[in-house]
What we know:
Strands 1, 2, 3, 4, 5 and 6 form a six-stranded antiparallel β-sheet that branches. The chain is of the alpha+beta class. Helix content is 25%, strand content 45%. The protein is globular.
Amino acid sequence: xxxxxxxxxxxxxxxxxxxxxxxxxxxxxxxxxxxxxxxxxxxxxxxxxxxxxxxxxxxxxxxxxxxxxxxxxxxxxxxxxxxxxxxxxxxxxxxxxxxxxxxxxxxxxxxxxxxxxxxxxxxxxxxxxxxxxxxxxxxxxxxxxxxxxxxxxxxxxxxxxxxxxxxxxxxxxxxxxx
Length: 178
C-alpha cells in the first residue's frame, strides 16, 4: 500500500515550492561588497558616518564592523525596520585598502489585535458570571528579507566613498596644521 497517497507521510519540500537555499547562486557579483582606498578601520568609520548621516541608530560599533538600524512607519498598522551589518576587511600587503561587506535586512511588523476576556463570579448573588473583555494591540513580525537591490547598495557605497574622501581631507588638513 502506498502511504504517501493516503497522506500519512509528510509532503516533500518540493510540494511547498523551492527552498530559499536553492535560489542561492553564489556568484561573484559586487552587490554586497566594495573595495575602498582606505584602511579597514577608516573604511568602517566612513560607513558608520554614512549610516548616521541618514538617520540610522548605531547598534554595534567595533573597528572591523558596524551594525545600524532605522525604523519607518508607512501607515498606522505597519512598521518597517532596516538593519545594516557591515564588516570591513583589510586587503593587500600593506592593508591600505579594505573591502566592506554589507548586508541590509528589512523586517516588517503589523499591528495584531488580540482580545482578552475574563469572568467574574459574585458569590453573594449566586453564580453570576459577567464577561469582561479588552483588546490589546501588539506589533508582530510578519516578514523578514535581505535587501537584494543593487541600486540600494550602490547608493550606500557611494555615500561611504564620499565619507571616506571627507575623512582623508580632514586628516590631511589636521596634518598640515601641525
